[in-house]
Predict the structure.
Amino acid sequence: MAAKATVAVTDATFEREVLQSDKPVLVDFWAEWCGPCRMIGPSLEEIASERQDIVIAKINIDENPTAPTQYGVRSIPTMIIFKNGRPHATKIGALPKSALVNWINQSVA
């Protein structure tokens, strides 16, 4: 069985995929034109395939303006970890994979 990768989320699926998830969900708010977003993409894909305890979701802010506005996303990349349907932890900017893993570990503990 192939390892799961990141989940693409839209404004239409945000509530079901993120807010109603039984696992913590890291949502990466990104855009095609964002260089730092593209830099962290591969790290997020790796983490998604390595971990079963968290869902890694990506939402394109240009195609889906509602969720970023609702959660006050003003710069990208912004990553928000949702637990039990609520924002739990936020990181803004590109981070190396090790820093992302540390942040996830602290946030989902």
Remarks:
- Residues 47 and 101 are 8 Å apart (CA to CA).
- Strands lie at 7-8, 25-30, 55-60, 78-83, 86-92.
- The two ends are 27 Å apart (CA to CA).
- The first helix runs from residue 14 to 19.
